[in-house]
């Protein structure tokens, strides 16, 4: 898969461990669609493209009132050496109430609930708790 997507995951993890409010990563289409899902689900405060360099994205990390990160853990499921795919039937068997799963489908990145609604399968990228 794309190496820059895993770099962005690592940047988000490390930024939240260091209690940073803003991190800067490289801008790719798949990264923007991933950030759009995170923003819609309330895991980040927002993101924007830098005005000085349009190849970089500024991500605003979100924390709770007690100072804990909104994203407790970001775990990659499918790895470059060992791909993992779920069919539409297998996705229905997964419990989406405890964890948040982002799946790469032929229609773009989707959440597990969107995949169930659209009856489509794909490659699970990341589990967020």
From TrEMBL:
One of its GO terms (molecular function) is structural constituent of ribosome. Belongs to the universal ribosomal protein uS8 family. Keywords: Mitochondrion, Ribonucleoprotein, Ribosomal protein. Pfam families: Ribosomal_S8 (PF00410). It comes from the Eukaryota. Gene3D superfamilies: 3.30.1370.30, 3.30.1490.10. GO terms for cellular component: ribonucleoprotein complex; ribosome. GO terms for biological process: translation. This is Ribosomal protein S8. It comes from Nitzschia supralitorea. Transmembrane segments: none annotated.
